[in-house]
# Entry
Amino acid sequence: MTSTITSTQSSTKEPRIIIALDFKDEASTMLLVNQLEPTLCRLKVGKELFVRCGPSLVDKLINMGFDVFLDLKFHDIPNTVAAACHAAADMGVWMVNVHASGGRKMMQFAREAIEKSTHKPLLIGVTILTSLSRYDISEVGLDIEPAAQVLKLAKLAYDSGLDGVVCSPQEVSVLKQEIGPDFSLVTPGVRPAGTDIGDQQRVMTPSEALIAGSDYLVIGRPITANTSPIKALKDIIIECQNI
Ligand code: C5P
# Structure
């Protein structure tokens, strides 16, 4: 690989890669994070790591200069979700998410709470989890194709003032077309060509996902489980710069 990574920090979307820190403890998390640079990636802290390590780890990552996506998928009564979003904003995270199925009022309360905060993270909705099939959602009373429900919830999230949604790369082009270019789409299910897809079902390569219209790519194991995470990250960045 002879290409070099050029700085694209002028765009507010850069860096577009969000590394999923699916680790069990701080030591293994820091082993990876110490090899990374905030100019090259953002970091996602999910439920397991947050429950084990708490706000102090998030604080540490932010103090190292990283933008942190706090992926706790809040879903509760409007008042409680608003308070949780306010707390996340106070922590200084870059992005926070809520379940769009919590409804318009819950999302509007979350938006208002963030607007009242000094630091304002991006507020992202979760539509239909990609782990749920047509049958699964019928069992919880939704007689609708998952893709149609994703679009419905994404439009509701947009109307409720959210900044974007998490979705599968397969849903990106329809959502961009239906909702517009300024609604941010955050996509997991990304696999560089030739890497193990693991438990992901319908994947796209990083460049395919960006071409389809993804704004941010959530990538875990292709980077975190690689023997050289920084090389894996840089290879993905180069692939993305060559589209
Ligand atoms: O290792 P991998 O690249 O599959 O990690 C993807 C990350 O995105 C994980 O943290 C996973 O929980 C998250 N995620 C996902 N699918 C969704 C929502 C979140 O894979 N629909």
Summary: Residues 17-241 form a domain with the TIM Barrel fold (CATH 3.20.20.70). The pocket of cytidine-5'-monophosphate is lined by residues 20, 22, 46, 129-130, 166, 188-189, 198, 200, 218-221 (CB under 6 Å). The chain is about 45% helix and 15% strand.
